Amino acid sequence: MSEEIVCDPAAEDGAEFADLLQARCPEMQVLTGAVGSTSSRERNHSEIQIVIPGERAVAEIVYRTPEGSVRRQAMSERQISIIPAGQPHQLLCARGTDLTVVRIASDLLKRIARESGMRAVEVVGQYGTFDPVIWHLGRAVRAELRRHRQLDGTYLQSVAVVLTRQLLSTYVTAVLPFESGGLPRFKLRRAIEYIHEHMAGDISFRDVAAHVRMSAYHFARMFRQSTGVSPHNYIVRCRMERAKALLAEARLPISDVAFEVGYKSQSHFTTCFGRVMGVTPGAFRAGG
């Protein structure tokens, strides 16, 4: 991409936006505009960040895995990235790229999780993923901010709650104390990251167990104790969530969607999707 820069669009002073608009409530901040100045530092923030590129935007996010290796993921205008609090990252984009960044307080996530009966949660980073709910809501907030130049705090707080509930329903893993017999936090995090990064391939819970250097039996038992579901069911759930997003937004043929989420045949994917969702992929797309 031409004139590539490293930017931190959520800098406290908004200095890296050429044309910044921002709005905030106690538990969320929204920043939107065109990328302007440059930066070379790797960043991390105490808030959960959601990055939503604008029209015709092309960006790339660079992040570190729990093992310390560096990964790069491209983002198109139809994709988003969810960056957990404290996650080291850089955002690469062309000067003038339109971006919207939403920062959600970690305390809001913890509070709503407790109210929902979840004992503890951790956000699993998503880089260049499709999420119609977050994408459409982010674009709507951006449009309102650009139209009115400011936003009501009550409206922003309601948006913050909706976004947080979407994170809790799709992008977190419940973490129980190690004393309960579950996995240590670092191993659970490594396992979840591995599943999300490899679910398009032919992986099984045995592959995940090998990645965290555990026997398949003990891994499966401790993973269930930590999350409440078996590793196999968690992999299926992740694949179905990814499939729903692709069916809703990507306009891919269903056979390609099946391949993108790790199924070798459309018929097998259709059977699994119908078992989990109660409708066929075609019916889900038509109803969306």
Summarize this entry quickly.
With 288 residues, this protein is of the alpha+beta class.
Fold topology:
Layout lengths: L3 E4 L13 E5 L2 E7 L13 E6 L5 E6 L5 E6 L4 E4 L5 E6 L3 E7 L1 H10 L5 E3 L2 E4 L2 H17 L4 H18 L1 E3 L10 H14 L6 H7 L4 H12 L3 H19 L4 H7 L5 H12 L3 H7 L1
Helix pairs in contact: 1-3, 2-3, 8-9
Key features of this structure:
single chain, 288 residues, alpha+beta, Jelly Rolls, Arc Repressor Mutant, subunit A, 2 domains, 6-stranded antiparallel β-sheet, 4-stranded antiparallel β-sheet, 10 helices, 43% helix, 21% strand, globular, disordered N terminus
Structural commentary:
This protein has 288 residues and is an alpha+beta fold. It has 2 domains: 4-172, Sandwich (Jelly Rolls), CATH 2.60.120.10; 178-287, Orthogonal Bundle (Arc Repressor Mutant, subunit A), CATH 1.10.10.60. The chain is 43% helix and 21% strand. The protein has 10 helices and 12 strands. The chain has helices at residues 106-115, 132-148, 153-170, 185-198, 205-211, 216-227, 231-249, 254-260, 266-277, 281-287, and strands at 4-7, 21-25, 28-34, 48-53, 59-64, 70-75, 80-83, 89-94, 98-104, 121-123, 126-129, 172-174. The strands form 3 sheets. Strands 2-3-9-4-7-11 form a 6-stranded antiparallel β-sheet. Helix 1 packs across helix 3, helix 2 (132-148) runs antiparallel to helix 3 and helix 8 (254-260) packs across helix 9. The protein is globular and about 55 Å long. The protein starts with a strand and ends with a helix.
